[in-house]
Amino acid sequence: MISRMRRGREEAKSTLCATGECRGIILPYMASKGEPFSRTISACIENGRNLLEDAKSLFDWGDYSGRFSTAFALAVLAQEEFAKAFLLKLVADDALPWLPAVRRSIARHECKHLLGIVMEWLPLFDGDSFREREKRRNEWWAWLKRFRERKFRPDADDPEPQIYNEVSFPADVATALNIYRHEEIERLGDGEPWKDTDWATGKARKIADGLLDRKKQSALYVTVTKTGEIGLHPGLITREEASEAIKRAEYYNEGQYNCSDEYNA
Hints:
- The protein has a domain at 33-124 and 169-257.
- The chain is built from nine helices and two strands.
- The protein has helices spanning 35-65, 68-92, 100-105, 109-121, 127-149, 171-189, 203-208, 211-218, 239-255, and strands at 17-18, 21-22.
- Strands 1-2 form a two-stranded antiparallel sheet.
- Residues 1-32 and 259-265 have low confidence and may be disordered.
């Protein structure tokens, strides 16, 4: 299914896929890499880890102080920093173009929370899996050499080996990617988000509509209702919610060790 053509834009491909199919993306390719990205990624990860350590400290003290709400907020901030680093890695690996809309998405909390759904799905670094990928790559290069030696003639007894397994995105991950690309990036680009009924419900939809960000805000501030009464407030954040937020941030942190070269074709 191809997204709507808009006047004055150049066509390009995207790696973001919907459930069961890839959608064509209209983006001019403007990726740039270099030392600045590496330094910024490292700074985001370091800050995320500092926030995570602060969250853990307040959580450990929470049974005496009741500061689980602040621990929750700091853990979500850590998640956002790790998601920011993840997005910059995608840009550095040429999986995302460094467009103004992509750059602006870094400052939008809902965008980072959507990428968090993707990070939760990605497996942690596994040495055995890495060695298996390297083995497959070496087998493919050996096959390519034989293919060239026989002047690119196919051989039924020597088929092309498969390097990567086919990836099927879970529904929430596919929805998060589609909302990020077609709604958020479009909104930040030309102000015309493309919405689809397939993305109208579910976890990713709630995240995109600000569920986690409102929760983070309520962990820091007391809201006042129209009648002047107390609305959402830090006291509503539970120990369990703070613990879950910290565990999620820890997973995002561990995910930074994933090999980024898997985004390169």
